[in-house]
Amino acid sequence: MTSYRCHSRLYKGKRCDVFFHKHPNRSLLIFIDLIIISPKNMSLLGKLEADVEIKAPAGKFHDVFSCRPHHVNTMSPDKVHGVDIHEGDWGKEGTVITWNYTHDGVKKTTKEIVEAIDDKNNSTTFKVIDGDLTKEYKDFRFIVKATPKPNGEGSVVHWTLAYEKRNAQIPDPATLLEFAVHCSKDIDAHLTQTHAQK
Q: Can you give the residue ranges of the Bet v I/Major latex protein domain (predicted)?
């Protein structure tokens, strides 16, 4: 089961009204809060979030993004083609890495710094510092958190994409959120298959 929601922050204290937006050519329904003001003053700050249920334990899923993101290309090879390290060490905050991936049918690269690793809450935060995303966004962060299910079987992965657009014409990165969700499912399939073979 996967759920999505999207919202923008308040702009100068003005309230937000809610409306619904169905992504073109998809059955995905995204809930969007936007400030009802003139287009020139529309808030450029936004946040998209998604939950996806997986079978793998939260700790194992967290370990992939916090300590060994360079293994993601073997778990989701049609989406991620390689992750290279530029500074620091795997599994350490402050490490700089580059993702090579295909998004919306286009090969792209994104350089990120591992901004925060929270092993207690199984959460990792990546801040984009260079690459294709910086062409459209002044600021962009990926936050991925895995939470064990109450019944002890599997976990729920929560993705947050927090960003600031360079201008109001830049679309919300809904397809990138979908990319993260599908990548999570690929990683889950790899983790559960490896566990089953042991």
A: 43-194
Residue 135 main-chain phi, psi, to 5 deg: -70, -30
The reported pLDDT for the residue numbered 194 is: 64
d(CA 15, CA 77): 43
Quickly state the pLDDT bin for 14 (edges 50, 70, 90).
very low
Rounded Cα gap, residues 144 and 48, in angstroms: 12
What is the percentage of the chain residues whose pLDDT exceeds 70? 76
**Pair type for strands 16-22 and 45-54:** unpaired
Placement of tokens 């003005």 in the chain: 14
Confidence of residue 107 (pLDDT cuts 50, 70, 90): very high
